[in-house]
Amino acid sequence: MKVPHSLKKVGRNDAVVRTFEYDDGSVIAVDFGNSAADIEMDVVGSTAIIVADGEQFEFELPPEASDVIARNGVLTIED
Length: 79
Fold this sequence. Notes:
This protein is mainly β. It has a single domain, classed as Immunoglobulin-like (Sandwich). It contains 1 helix and 7 strands. Strands 1-2-7-6 form a 4-stranded antiparallel sheet, with no helix packed on it. Strands 3-4-5 form a 3-stranded antiparallel sheet. Strand 1 and strand 2 form a beta hairpin. The protein is globular.
């Protein structure tokens, strides 16, 4: 699964964006850091809206995304 271009920009704000490939799928993980431990997330259609540390980020989810979770300052997108 490819990281959406607009999600790559989040990494410029001290967030760490990583991808993990497994035999049965892949995961994109975005760690917003300790200052954004309570991130808020909403999904509208195929658009994810994230509010972290007072900043809002919007991006299109990859078509193969099956699960999107925000917990403890980390956003995960799984296929």
